[in-house]
Amino acid sequence: MTVYNYEVKTISGEDKTLADYQGNVLLIVNTASKCGFTPQYEGLQQLYDKYQQDGFEVLGFPSNQFMNQEPGSDDEISSFCQLNYGVTFPMFSKIDVNGKNAHPLFQFLTKEAPGVLTDQVKWNFTKFLIDKEGNVLKRYAPKTKPEEIEADIQAALA
């Protein structure tokens, strides 16, 4: 199994298979608009701008599972990200990342890259780096700033 086995819904409601990203390095992030880490959207966009032409994609997955920090509709989330942070990387429909209703993609990610103390996603802006073959390379804590991941992205692209 790889991330390419999973289907997701774009923030505009279209079905999309992650196999469409085959051959790219991916950074999959669970996001929220009202979180102390929300300014990381800026750093994620900068990484996307810098490395997209090299085969790098940031995939944002909003989740409202952490203190209701993503209460908006998909349309509201999309507008917020574009207006406040100029987000142009792919965003997806709001999902659960933990619990019995966790999206299968996040069940896979947390199994492949368990966290410290628990496999569960601990908070918004947990990040998963995926190699060109769709395998999980590494998991990053919410407090890890996007720019701190840059060397790992460069290595995965090489």
Concise summary:
The protein has 158 residues and is α+β, with helices and mostly antiparallel strands.
Give your account of this protein's structure.
The protein is of the alpha+beta class. It has one domain (3-157): Glutaredoxin. It is built from 4 helices and 6 strands, in the order E-E-E-H-E-H-H-E-E-H. A hairpin with a 5-residue loop joins strand 5 (127-130) and strand 6. The relative contact order is 0.22. The model has no long low-confidence stretch (mean pLDDT 93).
Point out poorly predicted stretches.
none
The radius of gyration over CA amounts to 14 Å
Q: Biggest sheet, in brief?
A: 4 strands, mixed
What is the chain-wise order of helices and strands? EEEHEHHEEH
Could you list some keywords that capture this structure?
four-stranded mixed beta sheet, Glutaredoxin, alpha+beta, 158 residues, 6 strands, two-stranded antiparallel ribbon, 4 helices
